[in-house]
Design brief:
The chain has 17 helices and twelve strands. The termini are far apart. The protein has helices at about 5-40, 50-65, 70-85, 90-95, 100, 105-115, 120-135, 140-155, 175-180, 180-205, 210-235, 255-260, 265-275, 300-310, 435-450, 495-500, 500-525, and strands spanning about 245-250, 285, 315-325, 330-340, 345-350, 385-390, 390-400, 420-425, 450-455, 460-465, 470-475, 480-485. Helix 10 packs antiparallel against helix 11 and helix 10 packs across helix 17 (about 500-525). A hairpin with a 6-residue loop joins strand 3 (about 315-325) and strand 4. It folds into two domains: about 10-235 and about 500-520, no CATH class; about 245-360 and about 370-490, Nitrilase/N-carbamoyl-D-aminoacid amidohydrolase (4-Layer Sandwich), CATH 3.60.110.10. Its main location: membrane. Pfam families: CN_hydrolase, LNT_N. This is Apolipoprotein N-acyltransferase. One of its GO terms (biological process) is lipoprotein biosynthetic process.
């Protein structure tokens, strides 16, 4: 055989086969990236429910039969698309002080997205490896896919302080009945159900004969069951409203102006003016760091607040605080409560701080400034706390970012009657960030069975009832107040009582149910 013939018969087919494999890998990586990017349209403010089965089915199909490394690439591409577009709004915060941080905006978002994409990549690798080696049926493959996706989301919510943003379950936030199962299994459990049901349609297409019909009916049954369970909860009786009137103040102060010394008086005067508009209230709510200074040290400012508060009324406001210590001054991001005399009643210090926003991790090694103004890094508080105030139902406080963490907002030993979420989304302008933040707050309301009241510097202030429904809101860019009654709490939910143990129970129960026919066959044999 001459060299030409050998090349045509041996070498050339091998080269063509490698090229074909690379093209197939490239097409799957591209499919993964596009599907990941489209997940953004499943979350608020878009909430396109029909895209949910499209994006997760695309990933499910794209991972079948792949090796370890190729599955990692496809899963990572999916995550890069999801986070690259889904958290692009973070770049807005770098442009508040563009001359100092503007150049870091794109690299920071790209780096964070690439890092977060590792979690979907881990889920992809585990699913592809086990599915490839285990010869699983289509139903068990869907269950395996949903299980590893949920494990990856849970890890993302806990590793390195966690970032449980745009969880798969948040695609259901705008659908009242479909978000209610979070009261039993939490947002991570609802993600499991969402991804499992979303993968069933394509699994049915890949199946044949009777199995196709079985999986199709299972998909319909899954949706119907989630809707029915949620509808029953919405129709169940709730406790009587506590008869407490709230006033939420949204000052709408631009972030770039907020901490300028020359604007301090104007900012404070704006909040006082809005607070004293006609109308009656029992609790006055100001947002995170509404007062640009140390209010407990400012006797004059507290006297002006006292003059604005009717007798027997209480103000809850976000303020920075500082405490001398042996190691120097310690700074805290707090919510403090004041009565009509201007005296501090109690307070709460934020315990889940934002990396690089409120402190710099590994401060001794990283020569990086934090994005927020201040004299030093904030110190974390001791954890969730329930505040007891005169004439006010027991309240838990979550400051800004803290509201995104399932199961870590309420003191398990001292259950409150409502949650106050003081926040400042002015950092993110008119992007989709504030809408996504609001979605997290709505899910906490469902999980805990408690109303969540949001006071934002600008958008989105809201009154959210215990089923996650928005009763009233002020959007981004609006200046004004919300006068509303405090919605009633529901009895403690299963998730409020047992936390993520309910997620584990759901996954184990699902696998036990799916494996039951195989056990029966083994026993019969």
């Amino acid at each position: 055989m001459d060299q030409r013939a050998a090349f045509d018969q041996v070498v050339k087919p091998e080269i063509l086969n490698r090229i074909a494999l690379r093209h197939r890998l490239l097409s799957r990586v591209t499919l993964g990236f596009v599907a990941g990017a489209l997940t953004v349209l499943t979350f608020p403010p878009f909430s396109i429910l029909l895209l949910v089965p499209v994006v997760y089915s695309a990933l499910f199909v794209g991972l079948r039969g792949l090796s370890f490394g190729r599955a990692f690439l496809v899963g990572w591409a999916f995550g890069l698309g999801q986070f690259g577009f889904g958290i692009s709004w973070i770049a807005e915060s770098f442009y508040v002080e563009a001359e100092r941080f503007g150049a870091m905006a794109i690299p920071a978002v790209a780096g964070l997205s690439a890092g977060l994409a590792i979690f979907p990549a881990i889920a992809a690798v585990l699913f592809a490896e086990i599915a490839r080696r285990g010869a699983l049926g289509n139903l068990l493959a869907c269950l395996l896919f949903a299980t590893f996706w949920t494990v990856a989301e849970w890890l993302r919510g806990h590793v390195l302080t966690g970032f449980p943003w745009i969880l798969a379950s948040y695609a259901l936030v705008d659908y009242a009945a479909l978000r209610q199962p979070a009261a039993w299994v939490g947002s991570y459990g609802l993600s499991f159900l969402t991804v499992f049901v979303a993968a069933l349609p394509v699994a049915a297409v890949m199946a044949s004969g009777r199995q196709r019909l079985t999986i199709s009916l299972m998909a319909l049954a899954g949706i119907a069951t989630m809707w029915a369970v949620g509808t029953l909860r919405l129709q169940s009786d709730t406790e009587q409203p506590p008869g407490v009137e709230l006033r939420i103040v949204q000052g709408n102060v631009p972030q770039e102006e907020k901490w300028a010394p020359e604007n301090r008086e104007a900012t404070f005067a704006r909040y006082l003016e809005l607070s004293t508009q006609p109308g009656d209230f029992d609790v006055l709510l100001w947002p995170e760091t509404a007062f640009p200074g140390f209010l407990d040290e400012d006797t004059e400012a507290r006297a002006r607040i006292a003059a604005a508060l009717p007798d027997g009324r209480v103000l809850l406001t976000g303020v920075p605080d500082r405490v001398p210590s042996e190691d120097g001054t310690r700074y805290f991001n707090t919510v403090q409560a004041f009565d009509e005399t201007g005296e501090i009643l109690t307070g709460y210090a934020k315990h889940h701080l934002v990396p690089f926003g409120e402190y710099v991790p590994f401060r001794g090694w990283l020569p990086i400034e934090r994005l927020t103004a201040g004299l030093g890094d904030f110190t974390p508080g001791p954890g969730p706390r329930t505040l007891a105030l005169p004439g006010v139902p027991l309240v838990a406080v979550a400051i800004c970012y803290e509201i995104i963490f399932p199961g870590h907002v309420v003191d398990d030993l001292f259950r409150p009657d409502w949650i106050f979420n003081a926040t400042n989304d002015a950092w993110f302008g008119t992007s989709i960030g504030p809408e996504q933040h609001l979605a997290s707050a709505r899910m906490r309301a469902v999980e805990e069975g408690l109303p969540v009241i949001r006071a934002a510097n600008t958008g989105i202030s809201a009154v959210i009832d215990a089923s996650g429904e928005i009763v009233a809101r002020l959007d981004t860019g609006e200046t004004g107040i919300i006068d509303a009654s405090l919605p009633s709490a529901r009895p403690p939910t299963l998730y409020a009582s047992f936390g993520d143990w309910m997620l584990l129970a759901l996954i184990l129960a699902s696998w036990s149910w799916a494996m039951a026919p195989m056990r029966r066959l083994t026993t019969a044999a």
